[in-house]
Write a structure and sequence with these properties.
With 240 residues, this protein is mostly helical. The protein has 2 domains: 43 residues, no CATH class; 145 residues. Helix content is 57%, strand content 2%. It is built from 7 helices and 2 strands; from the N terminus they run ββααααααα. Helix 1 packs antiparallel against helix 3 and helix 3 runs parallel beside helix 5. The longest helix is centred in the middle third of the chain and has 34 residues. 19% of the residues are buried. The N terminus is likely disordered.
Length: 240
């Protein structure tokens, strides 16, 4: 049974039973890659499509950030961006610490976005609607790392020793971790906000949205829409 051009395993129209399509990379039949015991198409499903240009653009952008951020951190460490008097002042040390946090967090978010871009393109689950997520995640991670270090230095969050954060290497390491695991870091910030401000009451918008969903559910229950079957009457529960 011949495979479809997409490599889905479905029979191709006019294919002969017991035969598979010859691999397109020059290998003889029978030498194609196997996945779950079935031949798969080695070519990308995005090849020759507008999505391929967008994927390449995302990859170029993320790779640019991956290489330029370590360079910027090195130039910051060498004092390239400041004069002699500025580099010797105490303000320079404080500024550099937070700059390390931001840059390292951006680097962590960039690697995380790059990993997910590779995964999405390889698995064929790349979506155009998530482009801005990959473009903005590095910068969101950098801002989150900056805010997290600020909270630690001000003793609002007692996770790390404040004295150890006077070292640029320690700030950069923690900033990178916060940027790469930004979801977990944001969850920790939510816990801090809950401790400081308590439980937040739902606003009018949330309550109106819940009422609308409830009314929609009750309306669908009484009058099933197109393609829906009427709800069957429930049997009364037997008394225990």
């Amino acid at each position: 049974m011949a495979l479809s051009p997409e490599g889905t395993g479905k029979p191709e129209a006019g294919g002969e039973a017991g035969k598979t399509k010859k691999p397109q990379d020059g290998r003889p039949r029978g030498q194609e890659e196997k996945q779950k015991g079935r031949p798969v198409n080695w070519s990308s499903i995005y090849k020759g499509t507008p999505a391929q240009c967008k994927i390449n653009g995302e990859a170029a952008y993320l790779l640019f950030l991956t290489f330029i951020i370590p360079v910027a951190m090195f130039l910051l460490w060498s004092g390239f961006f400041g004069s002699g008097s500025w580099n010797e002042s105490r303000y320079s040390h404080v500024f550099n610490l937070y700059a390390y946090a931001w840059l390292a967090g951006t680097l962590g978010g960039t690697l995380f976005s790059l990993k997910w871009l590779v995964y999405a393109a390889a698995k064929g689950v790349w979506l155009e609607g998530k482009q801005w997520w990959r473009y903005l995640t590095p910068h969101l991670s950098g801002g989150l790392a900056f805010g997290f270090i600020l909270l630690i230095k001000s003793n609002v969050i007692n996770i790390f020793d404040e004295v150890s954060l006077d070292k640029p290497s320690a700030v950069a390491a923690i900033g990178f971790m916060i940027g790469y695991f930004s979801d977990k870091a944001a969850g920790k910030l939510a816990e801090v906000a809950k401790t400081l401000f308590g439980e937040s009451s739902e606003g009018e918008f949330e309550e109106a949205e819940k009422r609308a969903k409830k009314q929609e559910k009750e309306g669908n229950r009484d009058e099933p829409g197109e393609g829906q079957e009427p709800e069957k009457p429930r049997k009364p529960k037997k008394p225990k």
